[in-house]
């Protein structure tokens, strides 16, 4: 019997050992630059390929939403496995900088960058810099609006019109950075009490607070709702994919996101990470966005702006205070107020 | 007995003195890096690089040699094995956690002993082998002292299962849950824990008396109860139709019920939206024909309930069919001989015999619904449930891991409650019907009422599923589903293109990379899940040991916690020494194995409670050991459970998303993670084409598993009626 016993338990032990061996095997993984990518997958692929061609450094890209990326970086903090976090709204990049998850870096391209990109660099104490910008706006279903003979929304106030009753979608700011940007934007336009007054009225017209920031765009494109509040490039994306949608930006002024790049503190491949950081800010690196059919506005003035991208000249931007509305306390305070006054008032 | 102890003692030495102790790939040490191969063994590294804390392991290793050198029946033999093994295991673990990459991990120790000049890396091959050896020495010692009736196999199995559950369930879950009481300043505060646990938005009951939403707990419980009831009912109906009626297209029926389980989660939700959404096909048709105004009823409780029932009915069916097949017809025959009507037979004999199946199916449906993440995410609308709340507490704008942990504790509490209720309902009755006596009964026909009810429930549901899948498969071939339905092969070519280049075949399609990784991960994790799960089931049903109920509950732990929390907890626990697995394929496999193990356990427990102990006993009386009994008697009778767990874990490895989304690394991208990206981008064509390909692949694998493992053969008399329908049509 003992022989059999050895065989059985032995096999289990061998399996266990094999698993550990498997864990230890991918030595090649150590040679690649690991990048968390916060934009759409096409763009992640495109910039990885372009960078590999230029520098000869192989890149391993992993697409993560901003929240997921931040959660992963926090969990890895003691022993980082990621080298660069590229793309995604600037707000979580600021949070990462505030928590010391990323490290300061200056770029040779600083002189070519748009002022908003440099302001991200300043506010993060050098730990992050802007690579593209996207404006907050509305997306609407052209076919369905025409059928119901409704004018497309042009202003924040338009969303309160009775014909949009139960036809507006916006993400839940507790879940999505996009919606938090919208909340902070409204507070900066109407003042805090005015903004909550507005949101209370808007609540009657909202049919759903979605969990993902870009979800209203796909709901609008399928006709599940008439209007959504989103970053306009998400709406343009649906339009380019053949859906009957169009976008507009509010007349009272609007906020924006600064897509950013940061180098992770404690990276084991600092030189390669710096090379990627520089490439991400170069005109050549930023051109990959348009090649991948992504329509954000690049931060390097010398990079070509895709013709489909919203013309920033035509948009009335507010002077968005990232410093104030990016801090943990202000965020927590506004979000709990939203929770108690808007969310718990039904829906 | 000496033979196997000696083997483990030798392997312990091999791991300590010959193999590299640290994992070279995972961590790089800047000070005194250990050498490669032999030079990196604990013995040489401990002497040469000043990692003195490895050297005390010599004592238990020598104790092992002493034990083997003693005569077999010497009273010291088991004690030496036990104490040596346990001490070795304990020391390895304690030093591993106490000393990290940069020296002491705990400030108290640094103050006590002064700073260390160097740290250490993660456990490697040598450490794993030595620890395994210590474990089996310990359990061998226990067996030698007469525990588990002196059976070394059982003792070893319990030890192995306990250790792996401790390492891959307790450790990561503990990491997360301990943050529930995090005071914000890094300490633990009971008040913070209490505040988080009793937050009003979790427990409020507003929906009963005003038009506001109720607390998230009540939402979850209501949804889970409904899903549990519906899936159990449908699963039972399908099982009865498949096993106990002369229904002809059984194969088709089985195929249809298995379809939803092999579908990536987002696809069902998408299909449901495209059918029943405000501009869905069905909605528009209803508006045209009957003037029913289109609405968004699908977003919220109805939609989630519908998709969860679609998704989890097959699991209930897999559990129920094993049970219905296993019911010994002779009992029912006896009832009929005693002049009981069909209905009385069903009510007093068949139904009570199915109770373990019903209870297990309900438990699984209930817990699956609690833990489900994908469906509430897409269709939940404003109906909040615990799993999505936890996810957004982790990744949302108001990042609060403590709140996530508190919600996780509540979720666990619900799971515990369901588990306790199930145990109470089943009580301590015996459900054994597969005995060695050769049951030659013929199952009676179902009572008319039950028959009609079973058909009336199962058939419409089958037709509904069929239509849904027809639409999904069709969707992969259209330009832009729902808007431009002209046919195209574009999406398939995009995903699975093959070209012939200069150096041979080029896998040019965009889906190949993630598909190969997915198949590899699923193929490795399925047999592991089945093995660990069934072994645990065997220990639960067939062995008696102290703390068994607690053990049973803890095996369910990883199942009840939402995937997202598991994913984050795996990063927290396995990103640094002593166990460093992030970025490897092993972490994906382990996460999938231990997350899906509970289903394997449930299926095994349900099937095993039906097998009469007298079968084991007669095998043991005839001189076979526990292991031989398992291999020759129990395993062949467990075939449905084996199929269920193999199929389930293979499929879940392919379709699960929430747990692995934090664990996939660029090297090891999984299919679902890729598909979700496509859906987010609005590229439904490729997503659906890829999903359809996965569905076909999983269908083929399920057929293969059925073929290889085979059906359980129970002595049942066949009649002409039954024989007829076995013939291929």
Automatic annotation (TrEMBL), chain A:
Record-level GO cellular component terms: outer membrane-bounded periplasmic space
Gene3D superfamilies associated with the record: Periplasmic binding protein-like II
GO molecular function: thiamine binding; thiamine pyrophosphate binding
Signal sequence region: 1-29
Short name of one Pfam family: SBP_bac_6
Record-linked InterPro entries: Ferric-bd
Top-level taxon: Bacteria
Keywords noted in UniProt: Signal
Protein name: ABC transporter substrate-binding protein
Coiled coil, from the record: none
Species this protein is from: Azospirillum griseum
Gene Ontology biological process terms from the UniProt entry: thiamine transport
Source organism phylogeny: Bacteria, Pseudomonadati, Pseudomonadota, Alphaproteobacteria, Rhodospirillales
TrEMBL record, chain B:
One term under GO cellular component: plasma membrane
GO biological process: transmembrane transport
Keywords: Cell membrane, Membrane, Transmembrane, Transmembrane helix, Transport
Pfam families in the record: BPD_transp_1 (PF00528)
Matches recorded under InterPro entries: MetI-like, MetI-like_sf
Principal localisation: membrane
Subcellular location(s) of the protein: Cell membrane
Superkingdom assignment: Bacteria
Record's keyword annotation contains ATP-binding: no
Coiled coil: none
Chain ranges of the ABC transmembrane type-1 domain: 217-422, 515-705
Bilayer topology term: Multi-pass membrane protein
Stretches that traverse the bilayer: 52-70, 79-101, 121-145, 157-177, 221-243, 255-277, 297-324, 361-383, 403-421, 452-477, 519-541, 553-573, 585-605, 641-664, 684-709
PANTHER family per UniProt: FERRIC TRANSPORT SYSTEM PERMEASE PROTEIN FBPB 1-RELATED (PTHR30183:SF7), MOLYBDENUM TRANSPORT SYSTEM PERMEASE PROTEIN MODB (PTHR30183)
Family, as annotated: Belongs to the binding-protein-dependent transport system permease family.
Protein name: Iron ABC transporter permease
Organism: Azospirillum griseum
């Amino acid at each position: 019997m003992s022989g059999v016993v050895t065989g059985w338990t032995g096999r289990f032990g061998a399996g266990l050992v094999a698993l550990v061996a498997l864990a230890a095997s991918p030595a090649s993984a150590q040679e690649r630059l690991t990048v968390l990518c916060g934009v759409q997958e096409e763009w992640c692929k495109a910039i990885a390929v372009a960078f590999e061609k230029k520098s000869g450094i192989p890149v391993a890209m992993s697409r993560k939403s901003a929240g997921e990326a931040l959660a992963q970086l926090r969990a890895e903090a003691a022993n980082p496995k990621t080298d660069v976090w590229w793309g995604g709204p600037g707000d979580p990049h600021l949070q990462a900088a505030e928590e010391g998850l990323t490290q300061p870096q200056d770029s040779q391209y600083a002189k070519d960058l748009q002022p908003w990109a440099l302001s991200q660099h300043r506010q993060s104490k050098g730990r992050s810099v802007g690579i593209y910008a996207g404006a907050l706006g509305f997306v609407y279903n052209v076919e369905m609006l025409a059928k119901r003979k409704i004018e497309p929304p042009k202003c924040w106030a338009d969303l309160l019109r009775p014909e949009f009753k139960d036809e507006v979608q916006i993400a839940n700011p507790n879940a999505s950075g996009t919606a938090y940007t919208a909340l902070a934007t409204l507070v900066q336009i109407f003042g805090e009490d005015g903004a909550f007054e507005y949101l209370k009225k808007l609540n009657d017209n909202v049919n759903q607070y979605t969990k993902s920031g870009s979800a209203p765009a796909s709901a609008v494109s399928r006709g599940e709702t008439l209007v959504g509040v989103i970053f306009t490039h998400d709406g343009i994306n649906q339009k380019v994919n053949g859906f009957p949608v169009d976008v507009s930006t509010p007349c009272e002024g609007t906020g924006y996101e600064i897509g950013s790049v940061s180098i992770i503190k404690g990276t084991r491949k600092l030189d390669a990470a710096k090379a990627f950081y520089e490439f991400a800010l170069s005109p050549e690196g930023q051109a990959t966005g348009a090649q991948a059919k992504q329509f954000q506005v690049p931060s390097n003035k010398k990079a070509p702006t895709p013709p489909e991208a919203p013309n920033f000249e035509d948009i009335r931007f507010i002077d968005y205070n990232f410093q104030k509305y990016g801090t943990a306390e202000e965020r927590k305070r506004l979000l709990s107020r939203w929770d108690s006054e808007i969310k718990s008032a039904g829906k | 007995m000496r033979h196997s102890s000696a083997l483990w003692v030798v392997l312990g030495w091999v791991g300590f003195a010959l193999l590299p102790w640290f994992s070279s790939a995972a961590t790089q040490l800047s000070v005194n890096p250990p050498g490669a191969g032999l030079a990196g063994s604990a013995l040489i590294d401990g002497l040469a690089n000043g990692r003195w804390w490895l050297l005390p392991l010599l004592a238990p290793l020598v104790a092992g040699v002493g034990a083997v050198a003693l005569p077999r029946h010497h009273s010291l033999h088991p004690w030496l094995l036990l104490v040596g093994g346990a001490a070795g295991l304990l020391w390895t673990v304690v030093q591993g956690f106490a000393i990290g990459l940069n020296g002491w991990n705990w400030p108290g120790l640094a103050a006590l002993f002064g700073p260390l000049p160097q740290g250490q890396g993660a456990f490697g091959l040598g450490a794993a082998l030595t620890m395994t050896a210590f474990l089996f020495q310990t359990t061998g010692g226990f067996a030698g002292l007469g525990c588990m009736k002196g059976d070394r196999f059982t003792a070893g199995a319990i030890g192995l299962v306990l250790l792996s559950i401790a390492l891959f369930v307790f450790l990561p879950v503990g990491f997360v849950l301990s943050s529930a009481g995090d005071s914000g300043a890094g300490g633990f505060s009971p008040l913070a824990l209490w505040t988080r646990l009793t937050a009003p938005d979790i427990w409020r009951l507003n929906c009963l008396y005003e038009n506001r939403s109720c607390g998230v707990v009540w939402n979850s419980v209501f949804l889970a109860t409904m899903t549990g009831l519906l899936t159990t009912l449908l699963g039972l109906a399908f099982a009865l139709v498949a096993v106990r009626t002369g229904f002809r297209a059984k194969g088709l029926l089985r195929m249809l019920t298995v379809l939803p389980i092999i579908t990536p989660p987002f696809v069902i939700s998408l299909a449901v939206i495209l059918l029943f959404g405000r501009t869905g096909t069905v909605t528009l048709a209803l508006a045209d024909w009957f003037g029913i105004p289109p609405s968004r009823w699908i977003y919220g409780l109805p939609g989630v309930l519908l998709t969860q029932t679609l998704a989890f009915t097959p699991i209930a069916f897999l559990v129920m069919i094993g049970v219905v097949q296993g019911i010994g017809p002779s009992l029912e025959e006896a009832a009929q001989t005693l002049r009981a009507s069909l209905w009385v037979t069903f009510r007093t004999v068949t139904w009570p015999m199915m109770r373990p199946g019903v209870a297990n199916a309900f438990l699984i449906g209930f817990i699956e619904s609690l833990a489900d993440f994908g469906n509430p995410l897409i269709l939940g609308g404003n109906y909040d449930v615990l799993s999505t709340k936890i996810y957004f507490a982790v990744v949302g704008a108001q990042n609060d891991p403590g709140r996530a942990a508190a919600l996780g504790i509540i979720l666990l509490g619900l799971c515990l409650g369901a588990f306790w209720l199930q145990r109470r309902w089943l009580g301590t009755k015996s459900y054994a019907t597969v005995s060695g006596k050769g049951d030659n009964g013929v199952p009676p026909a179902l009572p008319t009422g039950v028959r009609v009810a079973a058909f009336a429930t199962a058939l419409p549901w089958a037709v509904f599923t069929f239509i849904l899948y027809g639409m999904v498969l069709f969707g992969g071939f259209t330009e832009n589903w729902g808007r431009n339905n002209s046919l195209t092969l574009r999406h398939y070519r995009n995903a699975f293109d093959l070209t012939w280049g200069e150096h041979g075949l080029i896998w040019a399609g965009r889906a190949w990379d993630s598909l190969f990784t997915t198949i590899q991960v699923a193929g490795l994790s399925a047999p592991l899940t089945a093995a660990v799960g069934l072994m645990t089931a065997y220990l639960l049903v067939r062995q008696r040991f102290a703390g068994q109920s607690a053990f049973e509950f803890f095996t369910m732990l990883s199942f009840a916690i939402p995937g997202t929390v598991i994913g984050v907890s795996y990063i927290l626990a396995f990103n640094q020494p002593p166990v460093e697995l992030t970025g490897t394929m092993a972490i994906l496999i382990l996460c999938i194995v231990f997350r899906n193990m509970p289903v394997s356990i449930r299926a095994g427990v349900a099937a095993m409670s039906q097998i009469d102990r007298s079968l084991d006993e007669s095998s043991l009386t005839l001189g076979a050991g526990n292991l031989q009994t398992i291999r020759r008697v129990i395993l062949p009778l467990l075939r449905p459970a084996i199929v269920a767990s193999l199929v389930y874990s293979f499929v879940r490895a392919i379709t699960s998303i929430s747990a692995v989304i934090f664990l996939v690394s660029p090297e090891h991208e999984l299919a679902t993670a890729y598909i979700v990206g496509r859906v987010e981008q609005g590229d439904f064509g490729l997503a659906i084409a890829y999903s359809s390909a996965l569905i076909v692949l999983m269908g083929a694998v399920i057929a293969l598993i059925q073929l290889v493992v085979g059906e359980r053969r129970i002595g049942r008399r066949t009649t002409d009626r039954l024989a007829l329908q076995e013939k291929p049509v």
